Amino acid sequence: MTDTAPDIPSGTAAAAPALDPSPAARALRYDREHTRSLRALAYRMLGSRAEAEDIVQEAWLRWAEVDESTVRHAGAFLSRLVTNLCLDRLQSAAVRREQYVGTWLPEPLIDDTGDWSPSPEAQAEFAQDVSVAFLLTLERLSPLERAAFLLHEVFELDFDEIARRLDRSTAACRQLASRARQRVKTDYARHEVQDEERQRLFQAFMGALQSFDVDSLAKVLTDDVVLLADGGGKVSAVRTLAGGALVARTFVGFVKMPTSRDWRIRPARVNGLPGFIVYGATGEPIQTVALRPSTEPGRISAIYVQRNPDKLGHLPRIEPMPASASAPPSVSAAPDDGAV
Fold first, then answer.
1. What is the pLDDT of residues 181-197, one digit of tens each?
2. CB contact at 8 A, 184 and 44
3. Which of the four pLDDT bands, split at 50, 70 and 90, describes residue 176?
4. Which of 15, 69, 87, 268 is most deeply packed, by most CB within 10 A?
């Protein structure tokens, strides 16, 4: 197991204004100065919003036991602590992933991806990226490769500092990050999409679904589009599908099913991608759908469907459908959501 209690630098901090040592003041500083970046690091390491929040909370509990005056740089100390906590979690997660039923997809972020970036000013190439495709690419890296890559490419730390945090040599960390970056470049191509393009894709996709038009939907999808669905063994989920015609037929087939009559849709940005939340008659979220834009304008190259209820618990509920309501056999809009 990784040492999750990094050594506190010896000596006292350089001369600086005295910090209020009261628990309330320390908690406020932690939340204001560190929580955002620590949460961003943990989510990219783990692919789970809930686990990232747990890690940040655990880091706070450990930090509260430390004499702050003995730490030269609180941010460095805390990010090293969170990195090590994540590495420990990943070691146990590797066992769980081997036993995971079906396709694994990250826990969705809805409309709030900015809150999970290192900082509003972060300019690193991958700093703002929490897309499903990016997180799936990180998932294929070893825990140490992932840590070295994220600390260097997203949080812009030099390799000497990364070496201290990972308890590896500078050369080894440089090699870890280089190998990880090469794999990311091979497996993942970043593609910036404007808001107008996101809206056009969503409207085209939903329009074809609502009209049960398989041909129109297939035209929105690339010929090699991939559909990935995560049910986690808790609910049914289709196996991985590939090909525009097959994916279009499958999606329209789902919408036509009697169990879909009461579906209501709330448009949403899912991990920064155009998408939506599907709600059932009782107002509970059934699944999220994220649409990955292709490099071909106006087309979708991947669809990510999150159905695992364990990963949807943080999503907001909506008002239940009135018992007297008679929903049409199509995707209908959730009330007051500005949905299509």
1. 999 988 887 777 777 88
2. no
3. very high
4. 268
Cβ neighbours for 128, distance < 8 A, ≥ 6 positions apart:
113, 114, 117, 122, 272
d(Cα 257, Cα 245) in Å, to the nearest integer? Answer: 19
Is residue 63 within 8 Å of 73, Cβ to Cβ? no
CA–CA separation, 126 vs 117, rounded Å? 10
Measured distance CA(294)–CA(224) in Å, rounded: 10
User: Residue 142: which region, alpha, beta or left (left: phi > 0; alpha: psi -120 to 50)?
Assistant: beta
CB neighbour class for 32 (10 Å; exposed up to 12, middle 13-18, buried from 19)? exposed
pLDDT average, residue stretch 118-133 = 79
CB-based contacts of 129, cutoff 8 Å, min separation 6:
190, 272
Strand order in the sheet with 332-333: 241-242, 221-230, 300-306, 285-293, 273-279, 264-270, 332-333
Residue 298 DSSP one-character state: T
Q: Answer for the pair 339, 263: CB distance below 8 angstroms, yes or no.
A: no
**Rounded to an integer, what distance in angstroms lies between the CA atom of residue 69 and that of residue 250?**
60
pLDDT at 117 > cutoff 90:
no
Output phi, psi for 316, to 5 deg: -70, 150
Report the pLDDT value the prediction gives residue 35, as an integer from 0 to 100: 95
pLDDT tens profile 68-107: 889 989 998 999 999 999 998 887 765 566 667 788 999 9
Residues 6+ apart with CB under 8 A from 304: 105, 132, 228, 229, 270, 273, 289, 290, 292
Averaged pLDDT, 190-205? 83
Strand duo 285-293 + 300-306: pairing: antiparallel
Q: Are 252 and 216 in contact (CB under 8 A)?
A: no
User: Within a 10 A sphere around the Cβ of 282, how many other Cβ atoms?
Assistant: 12
What is the model's pLDDT at position 252? Answer: 92
